[in-house]
Amino acid sequence: MRVLAAMSGGVDSAVAAALAVEAGHEVTGVHMALSRTPGTLRTGSRGCCTVEDAFDARRVCDLLGIPFYVWDFSEDFLDDVVADFLSEYAAGRTPNPCLRCNEKIKFAALLDRAIALGFDAVCTGHYARLIDGALYRSVDLAKDQSYVLAVLTPDQLAHSMFPLGELTKPQVRAQAQARGFAVAAKPDSYDICFIPDGDTHGYLVDKLGARPGAVVDATTGEQIAEHDGFFAYTIGQRKGLGLSRPAADGRPRYVLGIEPTTRTVTVGPASGLDVRLVVADRVVFPGGRRPDFPIRVQAQLRAHGGTVGGSADLVDGTLRLSLDQAARGVAPGQTMVLYGGATPDAASAGPAADQYVLAAGTIVRTGG
């Protein structure tokens, strides 16, 4: 097959490209330029898709003996990732820009261009498995990225390759070292790439303007602080609340609610975070098969959280998840991913049923 390897400049995409070459595919490497002003992207180990990352990607392609190109996706990135990030925070929700980048850039804009140019698939360094067109968790659950890939459509997955799905991170680094890749020990990227100094609050104030409002105690209804932007808060947040005094019982307060219309941030005890119902829209079935609802599932409700058990139903196009036990810190704007009900033809390939990505949707509301 003709394969386009998306080269971030990190160790994972480097080894993924190498494995695609060794599998006999005709591979071309491409690095995505996501900003026309490099200073607006993070650099060093905290970066992603920066100029120095492009140099690292080129060196790997030179070692592999494959063509290398840099493609400009800065306009797409600004429209589909940065603008979405700002609009979601302005609406009082908590977005996941890395997930949106996968959905809109790597497996939409990049994949569309690759197909138009005659490539059969896009290869990336994500930790996930594709078995008979179905998406499964990686064998390395600590690095598993099926959560950020769960929003992809069956057609997008049909033109995708994830060679690292059967490997652990230490194995990937060892393979990079054995191949002489300089990125073998390169730290993973983290944080938001388009906020150079890591100050998300400052970035939002600069882009959205100060929007002062009240911080209100959910128990007493009393205003206990002021803020300069409700978008600086997220559900479940404990630190950085700027409260003038502790709660009457001396226990910590957490952000329980964000109301963008009145610019009110409500805080209260940890018990106020408990939710038993999660509702999501923009539903996707990446495996291409809609199960018979209701169905028992394992659900992941944020990028770095564990899974919780529950029963899911599809009602008027929205997913409704009833949890077996209350979950905390569930924020509208985040993605709900459901695992379970492995497809019959893939079940024999090894992964357990709860490794299969059943569905995904964007959380719109929660309930007690």
From TrEMBL:
An annotated GO cellular component: cytoplasm
Coiled coil: none
Keywords: ATP-binding, Cytoplasm, Disulfide bond, Nucleotide-binding, RNA-binding, Transferase, tRNA processing, tRNA-binding
First and last residue of the signal peptide: none
Domain of life: Bacteria
Gene Ontology terms: biological process: tRNA wobble position uridine thiolation
Active site: 101 (nucleophile), 193 (cysteine persulfide intermediate)
Subcellular location as annotated: Cytoplasm
Enzyme Commission designation: 2.8.1.13
Annotated positions binding ATP: 6-13, 32, 125
Main location: cytoplasm
Residue numbers spanned by region Interaction with tRNA: 143-145
Residues in tRNA-specific 2-thiouridylase MnmA-like central domain copies: 203-268
Chain positions of site Interaction with tRNA: 126, 334
Known role: Catalyzes the 2-thiolation of uridine at the wobble position (U34) of tRNA, leading to the formation of s(2)U34.
Family from the record: Belongs to the MnmA/TRMU family.
Protein name, entry field: tRNA-specific 2-thiouridylase MnmA
Source organism (scientific name): Nakamurella multipartita (strain ATCC 700099 / DSM 44233 / CIP 104796 / JCM 9543 / NBRC 105858 / Y-104) (Microsphaera multipartita)
